[in-house]
Amino acid sequence: MESIFDLISSYEIDEQTFFLAVILVATVLLMFTVSLLLVSSKSPLKSRLARLKDATRADTLKKGSRLEKSLESLAPAMKSSNSKESESIREKLMHAGYHDASALTFFYAMKGISMVVGFLMTAGIYFFAPEMSMRNVAMIGSVAFGLYCPNVVLSMMVDKRQSRIRSGIPDALDLLVVCTESGLGFNAALRRVADELTISHPDFADELDTVCVKINAGVEMSDAFNDLVKRTGLTEIAGLVTMLAHASRIGGSLSQTLREYTEDYRDKRNQEIEEIAAKIPTKMIFPLLIFIWPCFFIVAIGPSMLLFTSTMGN
């Protein structure tokens, strides 16, 4: 035993060998995690219950459920203890179009994988790029990439989906006005608009289809539209909910209410476009100062300055 301890104590471990060993252990753990994702180990009872539950499903759905259960085992390590943060992430996932109960689990699992990738990138920069001029900044950037990349991607997905839904609101309102004025009831008109927008605006058509299903299930129209506002995060249609609820309460004409709201919405859209157009000259000042004006002065005054300096030199 003393000889073994002497052998261990005599072996010197330098810094490079230590970090290479850390990278080896991290790589092995990453491969083990990926193998768990692909082939999840379950007890025989759970496997039997899963087979009985998924007997009528396709093979692809079985693979998806297996991957979901594997990710559920990884998500608790990354899940935040702050309930407000978890609720905010769940709300963003809902705005992005992910309404499944397992969406939050998938998000935290992907966040854990991105953190591992970020730390591996940091270790790679530390060992394989020792002469990089801004190595510390690159390492910090790699860690930040691993920590915040899922949140940034989720925010971009929310903005894109809201933009797609926002672009479909004017067409939906125009079609809804036409359908109600032609004699259809509001529920039938809403169903027809959802069917017509399936190709041009599939995201908004899916949301309208959900509203139709809730109304047919007995949910009040105002509550169904309030749920639509919560699912999409678009406050632009909150006024439509109020106007429809007021019209249905007092027995007013829904077609006239929709036409008035459509005109008001179109005016608001025009005002927003005019506001954006009014900001363009102010935003163009900086590109003019940085890129265009120096080139203009070089072309306009450059030859005169060269002639002047050559004349003064002679």
UniProtKB/TrEMBL annotation:
Organism of origin: Vibrio ouci
Assigned keywords, A-Z: Cell membrane, Membrane, Transmembrane, Transmembrane helix
Gene3D superfamilies, sorted: Type II secretion system (T2SS), domain F
A Pfam short name: T2SSF
Transmembrane spans: 18-39, 103-127, 139-158, 285-308
GO cellular component: plasma membrane
Localization per record: Cell membrane
Membrane topology field: Multi-pass membrane protein
Domain of life: Bacteria
Domain (Type II secretion system protein GspF): residue spans on this chain: 173-300
Identification of the protein by name: Type II secretion system F family protein
InterPro entries: T2SS_GspF_dom, T2SS_GspF_sf
